């Protein structure tokens, strides 16, 4: 990378704080290992070959990952990253962040949105993940930290929005949104004689909200979505006979984050107040 960026072996050696001979030997060793020519000299200096350009792209990504690794190791213990797909911890989100900062000076909790089944855990975006569906990966461990009531999400102009609460039977014959990747709603919620007429797939929270507000679909969600995502044109109503949804905190079984138990205890305590 240094040779290509600086244009000559001499300038690369200066940038790296090495001798020109050391830079030349390193490049020669890499070319021998790969079995291809990476650089070629011309009247204007050095430029990469076709193979060199390909290797350069990989090298830049590898170095960026090394930098990211160094940053994360240096910050270990100072930030806990918690991923979520729909809502974090609802009304408990800010309370947890404040309590954590008080109990662990110098450490913070950050919530990261990631619309994946593991809420960013499998992708390396988060140290832990909040899910409202059980993760069935044997490499991931999870614990229930609380439960949340279910709410209907309907267009504000819908006649059902005039009621204070709803029942599952109120959805009979209607069209209900389902997010098969990260959502908590399935047709198994309903008895066969009271099931919605259809289900339609949505692509994440914003698509779900927009289509409900437009009157295309009805939705079913948990209290956390209600508390964190008010939306113009959408009315939330408690579904009194729907079973509650468990809230899981998940982490890699082989690599539990530091102070994991403290975080589980704090989140569980906040949910216990409901």
What do these coordinates show?
It is a single chain. The protein has helices spanning 2-6, 9-16, 20-34, 50-75, 92-103, 204-213, 223-228, 260-272; strands at residues 39-42, 45-48, 79-84, 108-113, 128-131, 140-148, 150-155, 165-166, 175-178, 198-201, 219-222, 234-239, 245-252. The protein is an alpha/beta fold and 274 residues long. The strands form four sheets. Strands 4-3-5-13-6 form a five-stranded mixed beta sheet. The longest helix has 26 residues, at 50-75.
Write out key terms for the chains shown.
274 residues; alpha/beta; five-stranded mixed beta sheet; 8 helices; 13 strands; 35% helix; 24% strand
- Note the total helix count: 8
Q: Got a strand count?
A: 13
Main sheet properties: 5 strands, mixed
| Mean pLDDT reading | 91
Distance linking N and C termini: 56 Å
Query: How would you spell out the order of helices and strands?
Result: HHHEEHEHEEEEEEEHEHEEH
Topology:
Elements (H helix, E strand, L loop, with lengths): L1 H5 L2 H8 L3 H15 L4 E4 L2 E4 L1 H26 L3 E6 L7 H12 L4 E6 L14 E4 L8 E9 L1 E6 L9 E2 L8 E4 L19 E4 L2 H10 L5 E4 H6 L5 E6 L5 E8 L7 H13 L2
Parallel strand pairs: 3-4, 3-5, 8-12, 9-10
Antiparallel strand pairs: 1-2, 5-13, 6-13, 7-11, 7-12
Helix pairs in contact: 2-3, 5-8
What's the quick description here?
The chain has helices at 2-6, 9-16, 20-34, 50-75, 92-103, 204-213, 223-228, 260-272; strands spanning 39-42, 45-48, 79-84, 108-113, 128-131, 140-148, 150-155, 165-166, 175-178, 198-201, 219-222, 234-239, 245-252. A hairpin with a 2-residue loop joins strand 1 and strand 2 (45-48).
């Amino acid at each position: 990378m240094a040779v290509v960026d600086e244009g000559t072996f001499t300038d690369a050696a200066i940038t790296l704080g090495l001798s020109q001979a050391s830079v030349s030997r390193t490049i020669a060793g890499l070319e021998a290992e790969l079995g291809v020519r990476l650089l070629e000299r011309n009247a204007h200096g050095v430029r990469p070959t076709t193979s060199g350009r390909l290797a350069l792209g990989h090298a830049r990504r590898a170095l960026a990952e090394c930098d990211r690794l160094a940053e994360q190791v240096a910050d270990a213990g100072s930030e806990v990253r918690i991923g979520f797909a729909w809502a974090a911890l609802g009304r408990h989100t800010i309370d947890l962040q404040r309590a954590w900062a008080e109990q662990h000076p110098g450490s913070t909790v950050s919530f990261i949105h990631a619309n994946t089944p593991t809420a960013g855990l499998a992708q390396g975006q988060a140290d832990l993940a909040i899910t409202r569906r059980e993760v069935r990966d044997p490499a991931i461990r999870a614990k229930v930290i609380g439960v949340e009531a279910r709410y209907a999400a309907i267009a504000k102009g819908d006649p059902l929005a005039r009621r204070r609460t709803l029942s599952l039977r109120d959805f009979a014959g209607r069209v209900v949104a389902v997010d098969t990747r990260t959502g908590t709603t399935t047709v198994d919620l309903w008895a066969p004689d009271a099931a919605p007429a259809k289900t339609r797939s949505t692509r994440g929270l914003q698509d779900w909200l927009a289509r409900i507000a437009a009157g295309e679909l009805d939705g079913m969600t948990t209290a956390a979505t209600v508390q964190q995502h008010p939306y113009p044109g959408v009315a939330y109503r408690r579904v009194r006979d729907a079973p509650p949804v468990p809230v899981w905190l998940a982490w890699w079984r082989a690599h539990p984050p530091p102070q994991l138990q403290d975080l589980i205890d704090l989140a569980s305590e906040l949910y216990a107040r409901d």
